[in-house]
Amino acid sequence: MTQIDKTAPVMVTGATGYVAGWVVKKLLDEGFTVHAAVRNPDAAEKLKYLNEVAGKSTGKIKYFKADLLEEGSYAKSMEGCQLVYHTASPFTVHVKDPQKELIDPAKLGTRNVLEQANKTDSVKRVVVTSSCAAIYGDNIDLQKTKNCAFTEEDWNETSSLDHQAYSYSKKLAEKEAWEIAEKQDRWDLVVVNPSFVVGPGVNPKGTSESFAIMKQFGDGTMKTGAPRWGMGVIDVRDLAEAHYNAGFIPEAKGRHIISAHNSDFVEMAQSLIKHYGKAYPFPRKALPKGMVWLLGPLLTAGLTRKMINLNVNHPFKADNSKSIRELGMNYRSLDESMVDFFQQLIDTGVFDR
Ligand code: NAP
Questions:
Q1: 18 in Cβ contact with 206 (< 8 Å)
Q2: pTM for the structure as a whole
Q3: Which helix (H) or strand (E) covers residue 193, if one does?
Q4: What is the tens place of the pLDDT at every residue in 288-334?
Q5: Number of domains in the chain
Q6: Domain limits at 50?
Q7: Which of 11, 12, 13, 18 for a ligand 1 pocket mutation test, highest count of atoms within 8 Å of Cβ?
Q8: Domain annotation covers residue 297
Q9: pLDDT digits (tens, 9 = 90+) for 102-137
């Protein structure tokens, strides 16, 4: 049982990120002082959105310069905080050197932040933003689960540096977090494991992979159809609620799958078609797997035939009951999340060309 003093500042790593944006907003709206650890506190354009949110809230935001790969760089931002949210980690699939660009910042960064928690006496709880990617590697892994659904007991055993390197980075980072947490008993670790995140960003020009994927629904990339690639979907606003509750519910414990819908690209597009009709070149049918296998790797950087074999026409199913029972989650509809996100892309001019 961990009681967090609501007058103490709360630290958020990677505060300029897509997921972190709504976590910071929630904390500011609740009146907290947020210690926002960011790579570049002079990036006026990125901080503008957080400053606007802070201006309309009862809370305060203070920026601190920190980098996942610079040991000790989170010391100042953590000072006096009882609760630390560690969200920073690169989320991209387009990398040349996965070790340098994904694994090192994810794993060494987690070590850096959590070792700092060990050195900061005020810290009582650390909430780490992991991922469903730390739970499974490919959809085909579902066949090895006990009740045909991924649960918090599952770990990704199939990703590697050469196959699904982002997922591998998330598994290594979360393992690292548990290893460090279990060696001490002053602070407890609570982990959230979101599936694919959608929904409007606090910063409407986010650089998370979520924006790039959502754009492809409307820019013609998928106009001939989409692969039936199973995935879980969670709204970024619901995910912020999950982070908040993971931080403040005294009994919160362990890992939590945060995923509202077991879905796939074709079904996700249906939410947009219902709302926008023929206004955009949405994918209207599922592509035959053979065609995806043949053409996918030629058209999409980073997509391999192995990934297609193990994921296309294989469903994703996760059991989110722990999040409902223990974090009080009440998930919004897929239609609402998809339409609100797509509308934000329209409003920012992404399709004006
Ligand atoms: P994002 O917008 O790209 O945010 C990533 C954050 O990490 C950014 O704030 C970035 O800082 C920071 N970061 C990256 N490298 C860093 C470094 N070397 N030092 C310090 N900060 C660094 O992506 P996101 O989607 O919000 O992802 C946030 C977290 O959610 C990640 O842990 C990700 O794995 C997890 N997650 C995301 C999804 C999803 O579908 N989006 C799903 C499951 C889990 P800058 O702003 O300076 O670039």
A1: yes
A2: 0.98
A3: strand 188-194
A4: 999 999 998 988 888 999 999 999 999 999 999 999 999 999 999 99
A5: 1
A6: 10-346
A7: 18
A8: yes
A9: 999 999 999 999 999 999 999 999 999 999 999 999
